[in-house]
Amino acid sequence: MVNTVLVTGGAGYIGSHACVELLQSGYQVVVVDNLANSNCESLKRVQDITGKPLAFYQVDIRDRNALAEVFAKEPITSVIHFAGLKAVGESCEQPLMYYHNNVYGTLVLIQVMADADVKQLVFSSSATVYGASEHVQYTEDLPIGAINPYGRTKAMIEDILRDLSATDGLKPTESPWKIALLRYFNPIGAHESGKIGEDPNGIPNNLMPYVAQVAIGKLAQLSVFGNDYPTPDGTGIRDYIHVVDLVKGHIKAIQALQGEKFAAGGCKAYNLGTGRGCSVLEIIETFERATGRKVNYKFAPRRTGDLAECFANPELALKELNWKAEKSLDDMIADTWLWQVKNPQGYN
Ligand code: NAD
Ligand code: WQD
User: Fold this and answer.
1) Is 212 in the pocket of ligand 2 (CB under 6 A)?
2) Structural domain for 298, as ranges
3) 42-81: per-residue pLDDT in tens?
4) For 206, which of 8, 126, 218, 277 is 20 to 30 Å away at the CA?
5) This prediction's pTM
6) Are 225 and 303 in contact (CB under 8 A)?
7) Exposed, middle or buried by CB within 10 Å (0-12, 13-18, 19+), for 155?
8) Do residues 57 and 103 share a domain?
9) Are 149 and 30 part of one and the same domain?
């Protein structure tokens, strides 16, 4: 059977890399994206990298009729659900927009999936669901406690999907839901071709695109938020993961959903991280060494809501999905830089 995967949000940063990986692994790909935070040029480049076509529908996942039409037209067997808004600060200013887009959008998607009897779903969750945990290394069994509206949309969606999967067996004639909740740590990097990468709108919120734009001279100076954390060099520690490693985890998740472990259905969370923490200063130093460029920076006060340190325990994904991150921090930075140099204005 040919596997056709619907990729919601497929024109975005992680989604476009997932499309490459899916096409190269022999899947047929259907993308649905409203282009709210992306440019369909990314999808042209996906086809250019792989030499394979994909189907694209400019559709908002909240538009139930339009989404149902896509399911009627395409032989979709599983869904990877990336579509969502993701800026923490914006979610604090406009929480309803986030709940409507992310939570309501997911409700519409799963209703349409149920109607079409497509019940394999890989969901983009986030380490942000762990909130302000006192632990620094997160395992999947820690309680969920997101601390901002964006994070709460992810936590709510996880709850909805767990509840949905718990209905399996109530109607024995129906096929069971098979759901993987993938909790990403800090995805960075780009495809090694330099053709697709992260193209943030305006001034980046996240560290890596900010560093790259300072190094290329687009931004004057990086503010390092806090040098008084209880970490070895005083700056915040995160688990940065190469976006290509991350999307490979999605292919492994689809394979797992179609295998023995999920034969009777289920909904399970997996961390996707390297298991290694890295400080802001280490990122700057590695960037300077790998690119030969200076990253001009100054220390600034801590950013509200930031944790000192967090990183993944990725053992469950290794054990149950047979996945682990392979790429080094040098790879992540070299690929970010190639994308930045080849596309100084992003996709524009
Ligand atoms: P992105 O903004 O580049 O991609 C999201 C895509 O979804 C965009 O192309 C956008 O246009 C589309 N979209 C948004 N709302 C939509 C809607 N209602 N209908 C159709 N399309 C819609 O973001 P990304 O970094 O690729 O993130 C992908 C997913 O991973 C998101 O759900 C995000 O919350 C999650 N995630 C990202 C990170 C990260 O650091 N990048 C970390 C953890 C989780
Ligand atoms: C990393 C480190 C900052 C920018 C965010 C979201 C999270 C997830 C991933 C989606 C921290 C420091 C940053 C800057 C800095 N997204 N920093 N100067 O905050 O770990 O996670 O993206 O789910 O939900 O919150 O990532 O890249 O913003 O920050 O010093 O200009 O870099 O303080 O220590 P974060 P980030």
Assistant:
1) no
2) 207-238+275-342
3) 999 999 999 999 999 999 999 999 999 999 999 999 999 9
4) 8
5) 0.98
6) yes
7) buried
8) yes
9) yes
